Amino acid sequence: MNTLTPAATLAKKGKTPFPGESDAYRKARETLLADEIEFRRHMTRLADERRALPPGPLIMKDYRFKDANGSDVGLIDLFGKNDALVTYFWMYGPQRERPCPMCTNWLGAVNGNAADIKQRVALKILGRSSVERQLAFASERTWRHLDFVQTVGDDYANDLGLLNANGSENPALVVFKRDGDKVRLFWASEMTQEMADPDQDPRDAPDVASLWSILDLTPGGRGTDWYPKLTY
Asked: For the segment 135-164, what is each residue's pLDDT rounded down to a tens digit?
């Protein structure tokens, strides 16, 4: 195992791209850069720990789905030729006139990377609405690289706790792994509202939403009372 150079030592190699910085700015930026290096290393450790998880539970229930061809398929069929399957259950059930703006924002960013992602793993977007309805909205947003699938019945949503008593939905990011002719859970987002820090929404670490990651780079940050909309 390689010995890592201390983050503070590496941070001294930083250089502000424009002239005129104050000593206070450079000192604070160097301290922040050291923290950024440590954060990068921590994210790398998290990814290593995630990949090293023991085998997850076998998926015993025969969940059914309908794909874009109208075919009735099972969970293992969603893998195609891949050994890993990334799924996102979005809040666009038949009771919603329009989909969730946050889900829409996230999927818009994923659409831009989907062709590349699918070189490594299967990627499916699950919804309770018909595939035709999901595709109609995708066409409106000019999404061309996402594969939409309808969950047949509500077993999948109910078993994952995605349906609330009032009929509203919750999103879910779930990764499955092929195990021979079976399917196992590999990883699922478990950051619930109960785990959120004060004055924050629950979110994964690292944050998989590029919207928030980019806003975190700005002076005002992500804020506490702003969320994306479907139209502006």
From this structure: 999 999 999 999 999 999 999 999 999 999
DSSP 8-state assignment for residue 169:
B
Residue 25 backbone dihedrals phi, psi, to 5 degrees = -65, -45
How far is it, in rounded angstroms, from Cα 176 to Cα 119?
Answer: 16
Q: Is there a contact between 148 and 99 (Cβ–Cβ < 8 Å)?
A: no
Q: Which two tokens stand for residue 225?
A: 């009372």
| Tokens 């990627």 -> residue | 123
Element (H, E) at 104: helix 101-117
CATH superfamily of 64-188: Glutaredoxin (3.40.30.10)
Interatomic CA distance for residues 162 and 211, integer angstroms: 23
User: What are the angstrom distances between the C-alpha of 64 and each of 74, 88, 154?
Assistant: 5, 16, 10
| CA–CA distance, 126 with 66 (Å, rounded to integer) | 10
Q: In what order do the strands lie in the sheet with 148-151?
A: 72-74, 64-66, 148-151, 122-127, 84-89, 172-179, 182-188
Domain boundaries, the chain: 1-52, 64-188
What confidence tens digit (pLDDT) does each residue in 90-130 have? 999 999 999 999 999 999 999 999 999 999 999 999 999 99
